[in-house]
């Protein structure tokens, strides 16, 4: 192996760590998805790929090696996690073979190599699928020729996205069994008043309407923001969160209308999703 070097060479374009701000219950899973259904056996992969099933009953296929000389697997096969959730991605979604992923990576150098931790997130069967693994890249600059050029060519030709997508397509799990024991908040966002004058009898056209809003979950006293999330076009939302007491409000400042807030503290118990309604004030009087 090459000797020690203080030089750090990033093997691929180093990404800023993607901050996955939250995991949100999937009411709108058609926004982000992995193609393929529950029957992973329909996905075509090389016969030599291995099969793996974890303790939660999640199964997938994967190659035992990458078929590369200068790129090694460090934590492999990928750690695959399934949750009743959706993702908020701080970076633009990456499209791979027509499938959409939220991708993050963190790299650090040690002993003449770069160790990169990757996280790929996407939706499948209304569940959040997370694949996490670590690869080791030997620094090409530590070699003389012709190994240096060979290493650089391999690095440039290595298509990690395509490999991860193929593995992700083989993921199979029981939708009914995933996410057991999860807790959080789910509910509806309503916008109102709609009309300037309240009428008797009430006019159905003036009833509060479902609203797509950018919201933030806070501590019960609203002194600290915890996570941001969106409600969908039908006003539906869900947040997977640990048991505790919380409040919900608009992500925007309170002087920006419509302003949304929960009218009471939301108390989340272990293993339960508590339902609540968030009201957004249009300012119409």
Describe the overall structure.
This protein has helices at residues 147-157, 160-169, and strands at residues 20-24, 50-53, 59-62, 71-83, 86-89, 94-96, 99-110, 113-124, 127-138, 184-192, 209-210, 214-219, 225-230, 236-240, 244-250, 259-262, 266-268, 273-281. It is mainly beta. It has two domains: 20-169, Sandwich (Jelly Rolls), CATH 2.60.120; 184-281, Carboxypeptidase-like, regulatory domain (Immunoglobulin-like). The strands form five sheets. A five-stranded antiparallel sheet has the order 4-9-8-7-6. Strands 10, 11, 14, 16 and 18 form a five-stranded mixed sheet that branches. Strands 13-12-15-17 form a four-stranded antiparallel sheet, with no helix packed on it. The longest helix is centred in the middle third of the chain and has 11 residues, at 147-157. The protein is elongated. The model is unreliable at 1-41 (pLDDT under 50).
- Name of the top-level CATH class of the largest domain: Mainly Beta
| CATH architectural category of the largest domain | Sandwich
| Helix proportion range | under 10%
The SSE string, one letter per element, is EEEEEEEEEHHEEEEEEEEE
What is the count of structural domains? 2
Shape label: elongated
Strand content: 35-45%
Helix-and-strand structural type:
mainly beta
Profile the largest sheet. Answer: 5 strands, antiparallel
Number of E strands: 18
Q: Termini distance?
A: 75 Å
Low confidence ranges: 1-41
The count of helical stretches stands at 2
If you consult CATH, what is the topology of the largest domain?
Jelly Rolls
Strand order of the largest sheet: 4-9-8-7-6
Overall radius of gyration: 24 Å
Mean pLDDT over all positions: 81
